[in-house]
Specification:
2 copies of one chain form a homodimer.
Chain A: H1 18-35, E1 39-40, H2 41-48, H3 52-64, E2 68-71, E3 85-88, E4 92-99, E5 103-110, E6 114-122, H4 129-142, H5 144-150, E7 152-160, E8 163-165, E9 170-174, E10 179-182, H6 184-192, E11 196-200, H7 201-212, E12 221-226, E13 231-237, E14 240-241, H8 272-275, H9 278-283, H10 295-301, H11 305-329, E15 333-337, H12 338-346, H13 348-358, H14 361-364, E16 368-371, H15 378-393
Helix pairs in contact in A: 1-3, 2-3, 4-6, 7-15, 10-12, 11-13, 12-13
The structure holds a DNA duplex (30 and 30 nucleotides).
DNA sequence: CTACTTTTGTGGACGGATCGAACATATACT
DNA sequence: AGTATATGTTCGATCCGTCCACAAAAGTAG
């Protein structure tokens, strides 16, 4: 054993004892099987670098806690005694809620990243916090009986299109919903009777990509997602999501780029998200307006001069912004999602060339620019991760419900 | 004990055993006394949240390792048995080298942040890597006998004005020294026969401020230093210095600001460090050119219209850049050093007002903007920290020299 | 000056955690 | 069928921090 549990922090932390060791190892095993679902016990042993005996004991404890189970070994073309497969118990789940301008999406995600359910509730106008909660409670009630019978819901993860204070889930400002200082997480928590955690939608999507998408195994990652309105950002720094002091960090869409002239809803001139913008792209097209998900085919086949010029303008601005993020973060990968991913897919060489031209050369030489891979489950998995975190950190310390008991009696 | 050793990483790490616990606790105690030198044993007990007995054993081990010693209690107006003071052994030291355009500075820094020696060797022109090493070796030889007799040098920390690959200390690009892809750390290591670590000068200065200066206790910190030429940046993210994939992160001086027109040495237009620039400030003055350290008094007393206009222009640009960094990092504090600190000191209200005006309001509302406090020992302490890190992480695992044996025989 | 209170150092017993070795088991290969 | 290999299982050894009882050293009150 040469494991180093020492954090990378320069500052002194606090001491630790045997129970801390146990917690750490239990957490390590549960997290490992959660992020790589079908995995043999021997593989767990190799990954954790723990002793066979120890892993045996840890898995046994996780099974007793109802967090994992073992299945008979798969057929394998390998000598030696087969090792049972350790699975996380996907019935242990998190509710996921993503209120947005056009719709409220609700999901149920189990350990292992299994999306049990996903409901998209279309909205005719942007919801108030009250309405968002009502819709959420209705949707949960709709799946209520099954929820109580079959799943053990440990918490709620919210993905919010705006600034979210991570300490308590206050929505400090969500411009497109027009919410200001709404204690949304607190109200959701009360309405559903579950511990609730909230994050910015793009940051949460970055976590999804990092765990299950194009960002697997990448420790230093810059993620940009082009939504219908606005651009969201998420950053992974040394394997840790960047949150900042209050949780407001990685607002990459609200960095001023050099060629800005339009006023952003945040009050400033020339924000990235005002200059690089799906709606402006759509306005540049002649013909019927396209959907965000149809952009790929349109961009690759179009001969619309106006659209092509606007796309190129936006790519130039985007490249400049990316170059700045590269100077700031020195990432291994820059991941583009949403309509930014469509731009990258349609003009891959142009995007890369412009980024390299706009960069301080030595910084950009090893950066990979790629398209994000996840589509609809995008915010789901990452926000579920928010709700799973306490359990993953201390599997034996979190009281696990036998079943979801429904909202508290009124 | 409710210590959580779990890292904040979402990804699964590796397991840990009893030896890991011991290492962690030994590290915790040594780091604690290193960063808060005079500290009683009972205070260590409180801080680490370990048991009295355990701290006793740990301190004993550190003393046996020659890393700490205890002194009789100070007089205290407090009841109860007095607790001995635990000190880090400041004879355990790191050599620090900071090659720059005008001078090469060498220092000897002991545990506890004690600056034993500091030599500034003026240079008539920017040094080549070869010359920098020769000067360094000469200076070390100059203090050689005493070094061997009185100190136990465990390593070398380099502060470099440029891009440094943290993996191996390669100086990828140092524009003002005109070094490109120089394996400087490796050569220094061979020349002095000591393990050598290198970092960017501003990032290292950020570490100094964070441990001993205006950034004490701040976990999320953006630091900007205005050098004679250029602007360096350093960022603390959740208590961990931002390094990026290769160590090139936090090049905040090389982010493009919106009003740029001059070409930067990095090849781009409108970099922060070309727009906000000490030399341009000096050119705007009538009269004799001032030194970087005289700027404070000049700025506060001047009535020079050209200088005031230029200062205001630079503050406007700086504020815009800071606003972007706030959007990206959501820091608790923004620290300004060098001539940027002088600007802040001379025009505190203007700086703050412009930053707040340029920011996405909710993000800036809690940010403190302050001047950095450390002057000459600035890069020294932080680069020493680089060299101390292995020891602080694993106090029992690093072979400690009885004395510095001098450069290897030629 | 003395007895009391408070705080801290010290040493041994204890429980908990991982490890390593020996043994058992299950598979592939020959 | 026998052998080699890989892994699960069991149990004792080892290490670590904690807890407890006691000693030590200071201030405080009378």
């Amino acid at each position: 054993m040469s494991a180093s549990r020492a954090s990378r922090s320069l500052r002194a932390g606090i001491g630790s004892g045997n129970d801390g060791t146990r917690r750490h190892n239990l957490s390590t095993v549960l997290t490992t099987i959660h992020h790589h679902d079908p995995m043999s016990r021997s593989e767990v042993t190799r990954r954790t670098q723990l002793n066979r005996s120890t892993v045996g004991a840890l898995v046994t404890e996780l099974v007793e806690l109802g967090l994992a189970y073992e299945t008979p070994p798969e057929e394998q073309a390998q000598r030696g005694r087969p090792s049972p497969i350790v699975h996380p118990n996907s019935k242990v789940s998190a509710l996921v809620v993503n209120p947005d301008v056009e719709a409220l999406t609700l999901g149920l995600v189990g350990l292992g990243g299994v999306v049990h359910k996903r409901v998209r509730h279309a909205l005719d106008r942007k919801p108030s916090p009250r309405e968002a909660i009502d819709v959420t409670v209705d949707l949960v009630k709709g799946m209520g009986e099954e929820l109580e019978r079959d799943y053990r819901v440990i918490g709620v993860g919210l993905a919010i299109p705006g600034l979210v204070r991570n300490r308590d889930g206050l929505v400090r400002r969500a411009p497109y919903l027009d919410w200001t200082s709404e204690p949304f997480a607190e109200h959701v928590s009360r309405a559903l009777g579950l511990p609730t955690f909230a994050g910015n939608d793009a940051s949460v999507a970055m976590i999804s990509e990092s765990l299950y998408g194009a960002g697997r195994g990448v420790s230093n990652l810059v993620y940009l997602n082009g939504f219908l309105v606005g651009i969201g950002g998420g950053v992974m720094v040394a394997g840790v999501p960047l949150v900042g002091e209050d949780g407001y960090a990685a607002e990459l869409g609200h960095t001023v780029v050099s060629e800005g002239s339009l006023r952003c809803h945040c009050g400033r001139l020339g924000c990235l998200e005002t200059e690089v913008n799906f709606l402006r792209l759509r306005e540049a097209m002649s013909g019927d307006p396209v959907d965000l998900y149809d952009l790929d085919s349109v961009l690759t086949t179009t001969t619309d001069r106006g659209l092509l010029l606007e796309a190129e303008r936006q790519i130039n601005v985007l490249a400049e912004a990316i170059a700045n993020f590269i100077s700031v973060f020195n990432p291994e990968v820059v991941l583009l999602g949403g309509f930014l991913g469509s731009l990258e897919a349609a003009f891959p060489d142009l995007v890369r060339r412009k980024v390299y031209e706009s960069s301080f050369a030595p910084l950009a030489e090893n950066v990979r620019i790629e398209r994000a891979t996840l589509r609809t489950p995008l915010p789901l998995l990452g926000s579920a991760e928010l709700a799973f975190t306490p359990l993953l950190r201390d599997p034996a310390g979190v009281a696990l419900p036998l079943a979801y008991g429904g909202p508290p009696a009124a």
